[in-house]
Amino acid sequence: MSDRNEVVEIAEMITNKKILQQDVSGAMDLVSQMFQEKYVDRIKKTLDDRRLKTMKNMPKEAALISAMKPFMAEHKHQQIDKLTDALITMHTLNSMQSDFPMQIAQAEAAPGVHADGVYDIDSNCMLENNAMRRQDCFGMLMMMSLMSR
Q1: Alpha-helical regions (H) of 2-131
Q2: What is the DSSP-derived secondary structure letter of residue 98?
Q3: Are 145 and 47 within 8 A, CB to CB?
Q4: By CB count within 10 A, which of 35, 47, 117, 125 is most buried?
Q5: Alpha carbons 9 and 90: distance in angstroms, whole number
């Protein structure tokens, strides 16, 4: 009798739309939290650390634009700050490019060759499974950095 009750309970659980929605929502929250901790937080911390280094040795272009701020109309100050911030971000990302892992450079050189020597034959598969290009990564980092400001 207890097996039958358990089956009935499982059937009720599966057919209850509210319970399924709660479970799916909980699973999505866990995935989102894991992605945030594993990738986004680490990327932001690295960007912030590099950004501080860049601000200590501000690029000439950013320093020049920032120096013009006192001579501009006050309503333009926010635009000057945003432009300076964008220049610092671009310089930060460019300085990070030389430290980027070699795996990405190797993936760019031979996108269809795996570490074990197996080649991708299907051109559609190659396009779908190709590693992210360096410029795509830096573009994504730039967007994340600018959006968090």
Answers
A1: 2-15, 17-35, 41-56, 60-68, 77-97, 102-109, 123-129
A2: T
A3: yes
A4: 47
A5: 57
* CA 149 – CA 41 distance, rounded (Å): 14
Of the candidates 27, 102, 26, 89, the residue with the CA atom closest to the CA atom of residue 53: 89
CB 111 within 8 Å of CB 126: yes
Q: How many whole angstroms separate alpha carbon 54 and alpha carbon 60?
A: 11
Residue type, 16: N
Read off the DSSP letter of residue 133: P
pLDDT (tens digit per residue) in 51-86: 899 889 998 989 999 999 999 999 999 999 999 988
How far is Cα 122 from Cα 127, in angstroms, rounded to an integer? 9
Phi-psi region of 73 (alpha: psi -120 to 50; beta: other; left: phi over 0): beta
CA distances from 69 to 54, 83, 87, 147, 149 (A): 20, 11, 15, 23, 20
Gyration radius of the chain's alpha carbons: 25
pTM above 0.70, yes or no: no
